[in-house]
Write a structure and sequence with these properties.
The complex is a heterodimer of chains A (about 100) and B (about 160). Chain A is an all-beta fold and about 100 residues long. Helices cover about 0% and strands about 50% of the residues of chain A. Chain A contains no helices and seven strands. The termini of chain B are far apart. In chain B, the strands form two sheets. In chain B, strands 1, 3, 5, 6, 8 and 9 form a six-stranded mixed sheet that branches. In chain B, strands 2-4-7 form a three-stranded antiparallel sheet, with no helix packed on it. Chain B has one domain: Sandwich (Immunoglobulin-like), CATH 2.60.40. Chain B has about 160 residues and is of the alpha+beta class. The chains are: A mainly beta (about 100), B alpha+beta (about 160).
Chain lengths: ~100, ~160
């Protein structure tokens, strides 16, 4: 459902910066629906795995305190041109999203 | 009599097989579902740090830098970026001290070739110091910055 986008840029240290934009409501479970007055149930991304050529190199842990449509950035130092970076996330309702891209 | 012994024996063998299966599966499961729930549900900063790093002791370091606005107009979207020149980075954590759940987000580095930078956009309920912790080489280093918030973004 949700679309996930990724951008890979070279950084000054000679590695790459990976930016991931996931479309997600990131509900905290504290917000109230203005019309009904009921609490909107929590719905947020919990883990986001970053893999380089299929090996997970790091995992971001997200909670309700992260803004909606989270933009997460990490740096990779071991990537070469042609390597694939893949990202997969899972939220507290078990929904998942993935995207992958090759380093230019 | 012999049949009974045989049954017992096969039962024991099957439990061992199940245990071995679980053991084999464990490493992948650790990577896929290691969401630190205890840290996210902790109500105080020290509790969250103990749950995540195993220690609440952190050392102020100038090798950890954070880039964040001094004043955030919209508390629902506060961009922060943590950079570190430390090597062997194991984990990076962001703690918004005055949020209902202070522990906001973190990055766990599981393989080589990652770490050094982590950026995210966080929600802030009110003006609060934001602490960034970096665990490198078994030690925890931190840096902090106060971010002023004019409109809170934690719902309620």
């Amino acid at each position: 459902m949700a679309s996930t986008k990724m951008k890979i840029k070279k950084n000054k240290a000679g590695g790459h910066d990976v930016m991931v934009l996931a479309k997600h409501p990131m509900e905290t479970g504290l917000r109230k629906d203005k019309k009904t007055g009921e609490k909107v149930p929590a719905h947020f991304i919990q883990t986001m795995d970053f893999a380089l050529n299929g090996t997970v190199v790091s995992q971001a842990n997200l909670g309700p305190g992260v803004s909606k449509n989270p933009l997460i950035g990490i740096s990779l130092s071991g990537g070469k041109s042609g390597d694939t970076v893949s990202v997969s996330w899972t939220d507290n309702k078990g929904e998942t999203g993935t995207t992958e891209k090759a380093i230019k | 009599m012999k049949r009974r012994i045989f049954l017992k024996g096969s039962l024991a063998a099957s439990t061992i097989a199940v245990a071995a299966g679980a053991g084999l599966l464990a490493p992948t499961r650790v990577l896929a579902a290691a969401w630190p729930e205890a840290a996210f549900t902790a109500k105080t900063e020290a509790d969250a740090l103990t749950a995540f790093f195993g220690t609440a002791d952190a050392q102020q370091s100038d090798q950890v830098t954070m880039k964040a606005p001094l004043q955030a107009e919209n508390g629902a979207v506060v961009p922060i970026k943590i950079m570190t020149s430390l090597s062997d980075v194991e984990a990076i954590a962001v703690v918004t001290v005055k949020n209902p759940s202070p522990y906001t987000t973190s990055l766990q580095v599981t393989g080589s070739g990652a770490g050094g930078m982590y950026s995210a956009r966080i929600k802030m309920g009110q003006t609060s110091p934001v602490n960034c912790y970096v665990k490198a080489g078994g030690k925890v280093y931190m840096t902090s910055q106060e971010i002023k918030v004019t409109v809170g973004g934690c719902g309620g």
